[in-house]
Structures are given as structure tokens and as C-alpha cells.
Amino acid sequence: MDGAWLWIAFALVALATHIPRGSFIVLGQRARLPQPVQDALRYAPAAALAAIVVPDVLVVDGAVQLINPKLAAAAVVLAVAMRWKNPWLPFIFGMAVLLFLRKGFGL
Amino acid sequence: MNPRFVEGARAGFKVFLPLSIGLIPWAIVTGVALRSAGLSIGEAMGMNLMVFAGVAQIGTLPLIMAGAPLWLIGLTALALNLRFVIFSAAIARGFDGVPLVRRMLSGYLLVDGVFAVCTQRLLAEPDRDWRFGYYIAPSLWAWGLWQSFVLVGVLGAGVLPQDWSLEFMATIALMVLLVPLSSNRPMLVAALVGGLASVALRGMPLKLGVIAAIVAGIAAGFAAQRILSDRSGAV
Questions:
Q1: Residue B75 to residue B73: CA distance in whole angstroms
Q2: Which residues of A touch B225 (CB under 8 A)?
Q3: What is the ipTM of this complex?
């Protein structure tokens, strides 16, 4: 991957970030999104985040594995994040579980 | 400076300050994740200044590093950022009477935390200078805090050992964002369908399965909302 391609990719992600952000603030009162569209779009972030995270913790070397260190760590992260508001705890517990399983048991 | 602007800026800063501390771990983790993925210090900070959106950066990073097609990278970033369209539509009235250049700056700076904390008061206040101060002060604070601590993560990533699976911190960050989003049932349905569809469709070429899964998740969430509200008799 050459350097110029990387910066084009960054610029594209920047555009795909700042057009949504600026959209209605910049357009002002001239534009309003239809209600059904607003309703449906509400689900985009949850669907997008899950579509990225779930394969990462469920798939090992191309195959679904229901017992693996990442999935165990993910379960702990979810439990901690649901129980406590502290933003550091999911990172501390999640990494502790993952490293314990990987280093301690060589998984 | 306009006294109403200063007054608004003080009020906005004060209300956002406690929440802003929550940005620090995200920023450090994002910095570490950018470096662990293989970006140089300059590339990592360049991306961070251009994009200024942790979720979009971490979410598109695997695609970028794998050399995925640009249109797929763009579409994925767009999907991850669609919430900002909703935020932007919801907060827009707060910028009535604010000049165009300032509205563009405000768009670049729009982040989840400031939106969550400031929108209600912003829409209720009549004075436009006060409103702009109330929005721009916490937004600039969030920007400075974010850039500083991403830099800490970017510089710190080099001294951290390589075999600690630190790239998993990005996954943790995404999960922590997912938890409050999934607090109602249609949202949970959208997340479950999106996640499982993404696993099922992982064999599709060009990671197209991710986009298909996001669309499936949105459709499932919307359908679940309809079904649940019909059943409860609510509108």
C-alpha cells in the first residue's frame, strides 16, 4: 500500500464523517429529513458497530469458534460495561481476561 | 468579546467538563490502535486531525490496512457516521442566525458528548451569541482533549510491548459504545442481526458482507420497532 493511497483513504473517511456532521447544521432551516428516514437511520450505528465487532470475536482463522479467548474477554467487557459507568474498567478487565487466557494458557 | 457569547461559553464548558473526562481513555486507546495497526506517527495524527471521529477511524482501520476498495471504506465510514446526520438534524435549530463559516466549524466539531449534554438548552435559548458560545466552548475543549490524548496513545504505543494483543482495545472500545445503544429492544435486534449477518456473510468478496449486514440490521431494527409498537398499541 503506497503513501498516497493511504491519504486518499483518510480524506474519504474525513468526507464521510464531516458531510453527515455538517449536513443539517450547515443547511440550516432549509432542510428537514422525513420522519420514517430518521427513524430507520437510528439503527445504523448499532448495526454497523455489531457488524464490525461480532466477526472479530466469533471468527478464528476463518471459522466460527464458540470457545476462544477473545469471545471470553468480550463477554466480560459487555458485563462490566453494563454494570459500571467507569470508562476505564471495560478496558482493564477485557485486556486482563484476554492476556490471562493467551499468556497463562497459551490459547 | 461579546458578553453574551462569553456567558454562553462558560455555561457550556461547565456542563460538559465532567463528561469530557470519559474521552481520555477512548483517545488513548484510539492512538494505540492507530499505531498498532501499522500507521506511522505522522499518518496516525494526520488521520486524527482530518477525521476527528474515533469510531469511524477504528472502524475503517482494518479495511484501510487490508487495502480494501475505497468505495467500501467510504461506505463503511458513512454507515458508522449516520448517527451524525440525526444529531445534525436535531441540533440544527440551535444555529439559527449563526453565520455560515461558524456553522461549518460547528459541523466539523460535532461530537456525541456535546450533542448529548448541550442540545436541549441550546434549542431553548433565544440569544444567538449565547447559543454559539454554549456550543463552541465545550466542542473546542473536546477537540483539544481528544487530539492531546490520541497523541499520548500514538507516542505511547511505541514503548508498549508488541505481543500484548493491544489491538483488542479497539474492539473493546466499539463494544463499550454498543452497550448503551442497545438499551432498547429494536436497537438490540438491529445489533444482533447486524452482527450475526456479518458473521454469516463473511465469505462475500470485498467485505461486502459488512455492508449487507448493516443494511440487514437497520431493516431488522426498523421492523422490530414497528412490530413492538403495534403490539403495545403505541404509535
A1: 6
A2: 39
A3: 0.81
